[in-house]
From TrEMBL:
This is HisA/HisF family protein. Transmembrane segments: none annotated. It comes from Methanobacterium alkalithermotolerans. Keywords: Amino-acid biosynthesis, Histidine biosynthesis. Belongs to the HisA/HisF family.
Length: 227
């Protein structure tokens, strides 16, 4: 059975939504799970509707423009949070651990592969999730001098239980998941959590392909996909 992991983006204390990672255009989230954009209320409703955990992105922390960590921490008290708060290195990973049960190490913000190695050496794999961020078909990793194939080989060696494959270009577009990406990461199929533009049709196809975990934002909040 496929696990649907709800996505919640936080900015200035509220839940927001947008397309293709263009964060300056994001607007307050409208969701079938709440009458407001209050992230705690939305998360509580998601829990009551069957969510087992939630993906939370603190956009202010990622862009170094503030923090919503107190909100993520509140949500984590009743619904386990997988948190992306712009981890750059071992120090920022260690700091983030108090706010969620799993911390995302995303290629968008990671300083170096060496810092990833330090995190994996010091902390159990159960506390971290690496996010392979993709934009326009290429690895989105401003600080890493690696191709997508090279980073994939690194992940195979690390043998992590969960890896997010996030196509930022597809987020909020309803265009469907990039099928070429799945083929490129098929060696990691059992660890993958896919995200970015997933439709109801995608969900069924991915399930038959053996993908058992997906991140759903827009299609969940507008009622197209259910938990």
């Amino acid at each position: 059975m496929m696990e649907v992991i709800p996505v919640l983006d936080l900015k200035s204390g509220i839940a927001v939504s947008g397309q293709s990672g263009k964060r300056d255009t994001y607007t307050p989230l409208k969701t079938v799970y709440s009458t407001s954009s209050d992230p705690v209320m939305i998360s509580n409703s998601l829990r009551h509707n069957g969510a087992r955990r939630i993906y939370v992105a603190d956009l202010d922390m990622i862009e170094k423009k503030g923090s919503n960590l107190d909100v993520a921490q509140k949500i984590n008290l009743f619904l386990p949070v997988i948190l992306d708060c712009g981890v750059r290195n071992l120090e920022t990973f260690k700091f983030a651990l108090k706010f969620a049960y799993k911390i995302i190490v995303a290629t968008e913000t990671l300083e170096s592969v060496e810092e990833l190695d330090k995190i994996c050496e010091k902390f159990p794999a159960s506390r971290l999730v690496v996010s392979v961020d993709v934009k326009n078909g290429k690895l989105y990793a401003p600080n890493l001098d690696l191709t997508m194939e090279e980073f994939k080989d690194k992940l195979i060696k690390l043998n992590l239980p969960e890896i997010i494959l996030l196509d930022i270009s597809q987020v909020g577009t309803y265009k469907g998941f990039n099928k070429d990406l799945i083929e490129k990461f098929i060696d990691l199929k059992t660890s993958l959590i896919l995200g970015g533009g997933i439709t109801p049709e995608d969900k069924e196809k991915l399930n038959t392909q053996g993908i058992k975990k997906v991140l759903i934002g827009s299609a969940l909040h507008n009622g197209q996909i259910h938990l």
